[in-house]
């Protein structure tokens, strides 16, 4: 049975380029039976995840993250940028409601203003920098500007001629936005947020980009990509894209703005047109990405400069539209079961905290009793669980409740199925925990 490798992320100072790199995760919510904020935070803590990015500023989620020490990026959704970018007061109200109301209990370290605005919402581009400046002004007024950075995530498609990296430049169409934006990032000590997806570079290359090069797999020296202008060697697509962004900034005379990768990952499932969206490739990419980021090697252009990265994403978002791959970027199912076991052996600062795979399947506290009864009946019937200990007078009869009996049955099924992915769901009434339900039952009242 595979060992469930629990990965621990490094705690670093606010500006990642000046310390050790870290790995974080994005938390999307387009999920059927989305776990409650309390359940999400329990999973984060069980996995040792210390950095998360939210796509909004959900109050319940921010309250659940309070007093955990987890570092949080909150986001201004794209549909609010026009309002904030046109009104200092609107920006101040947003900061008061979504940031000031939650700090310091919730450790908010950055605000992402929109997501890929230049490429997905170009009509908001003229007010994007104003939105950042208004948000920043509100932070200054609250004396929070030193601990909370403001930036906006970009698609890597804003970079043209990305290989060789030394020839890369930002799409000149966006110069009226990009130049003042970079001035803002430089003056506030913030970072360029960049979404880096080697999967799409590989898929769109028509065979030019080798799969091994996209997945960080070792390459023989004669297969490495060489920038003919700098003679720098590139062994993976991720580094080449990040360096293309560094060169594009230097083309505009900005040379000291660090990069924070706000999204990167690989889908574990795709349709017939996406044959390389597989569990094995997703596992390989994310495992290698984690090791690569945490070894603090930086990139060929910026060796030793941290490129902290947020994996896309925590959960599979099954409600997203588009190709099958859109629903399968997650490390976990909504039930809390892992989609695959990360290959993190001998990864230095990333290590296994739970080498015996001590996870259990329990009934959710808010689960419908009829659904729990159905799960109990199925586990004790078609699931072939021995439920005799639940009979009156037997060891697991007390407490005599549907929730308690269902937890015994569904956990027994989960264990006998070797805790394999998808065996702790039961139509959304079950979730995975690291607390042994049998120990809890035996504790004195």
UniProtKB/TrEMBL annotation:
Cellular compartments per GO CC: plasma membrane; plasmodesma; side of membrane
Keywords: Cell membrane, Disulfide bond, Glycoprotein, Glycosidase, GPI-anchor, Hydrolase, Lipoprotein, Membrane, Plant defense, Signal
Signal sequence, start to end: 1-21
GO molecular function annotations of the record: glucan endo-1,3-beta-D-glucosidase activity
TM region positions: none
Places the protein is found: Cell membrane
Record membrane topology: Lipid-anchor; GPI-anchor
Family the entry assigns: Belongs to the glycosyl hydrolase 17 family.
UniProt name for this protein: glucan endo-1,3-beta-D-glucosidase
């Amino acid at each position: 049975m595979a060992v469930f490798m629990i990965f621990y992320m490094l705690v670093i100072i606010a500006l990642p380029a000046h310390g050790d790199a870290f790995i974080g995760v994005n938390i999307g919510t387009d999920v059927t039976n989305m776990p409650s904020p309390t359940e999400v935070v329990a999973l984060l803590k069980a996995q040792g995840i210390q950095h998360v990015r939210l796509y909004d500023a959900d109050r319940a989620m921010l309250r659940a993250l309070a007093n955990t020490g987890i570092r949080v990026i909150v986001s201004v959704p794209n549909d609010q940028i026009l309002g904030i970018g046109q009104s200092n007061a609107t920006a101040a109200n947003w900061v008061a409601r979504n940031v000031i109301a939650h700090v310091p209990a919730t450790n908010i370290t950055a605000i992402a203003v929109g997501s890929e605005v230049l490429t997905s919402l170009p009509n908001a581009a003229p007010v994007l920098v104003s939105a950042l400046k208004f948000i920043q002004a509100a932070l200054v007024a609250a004396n929070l500007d030193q601990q909370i950075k403001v930036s906006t995530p970009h698609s890597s498609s804003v970079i043209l001629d990305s290989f060789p990296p030394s020839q890369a430049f930002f799409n000149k169409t966006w110069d009226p936005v990009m130049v003042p934006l970079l001035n803002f990032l430089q003056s506030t000590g913030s970072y360029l947020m960049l979404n880096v997806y080697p999967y799409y570079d590989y898929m769109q290359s028509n065979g030019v980009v080798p799969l091994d090069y996209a997945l960080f797999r070792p390459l023989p020296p004669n297969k490495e990509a060489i920038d003919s202008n700098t003679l720098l060697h590139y062994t993976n697509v991720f580094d080449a894209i990040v360096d293309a962004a560094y060169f594009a900034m230097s083309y505009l005379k900005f040379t000291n703005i660090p990069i924070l990768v706000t999204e990167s990952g690989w889908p574990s499932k795709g349709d017939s047109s996406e044959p390389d969206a597989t569990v094995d490739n997703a596992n390989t990419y994310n495992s290698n990405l984690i090791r690569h980021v945490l070894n603090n090697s930086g990139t060929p252009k910026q060796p030793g400069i941290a490129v902290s990265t947020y994996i896309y994403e925590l959960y599979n978002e099954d409600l997203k539209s588009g190709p099958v791959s859109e629903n399968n970027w997650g490390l976990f199912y909504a039930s809390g079961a892992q989609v695959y076991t990360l290959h993190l052996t001998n990864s230095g600062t990333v290590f296994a905290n739970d080498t015996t795979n001590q996870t259990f399947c329990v009934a959710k506290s808010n689960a419908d009793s009829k659904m729990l009864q159905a799960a109990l009946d199925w586990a004790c019937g078609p699931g072939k669980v021995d439920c005799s200990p639940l009979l009156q007078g037997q060891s697991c009869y007390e407490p005599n409740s549907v929730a308690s009996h269902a937890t015994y049955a569904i956990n027994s099924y989960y264990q006998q199925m070797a805790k394999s992915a998808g065996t702790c769901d039961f139509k959304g009434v079950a979730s995975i925990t690291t607390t042994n339900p049998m120990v809890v039952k035996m504790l004195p009242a």
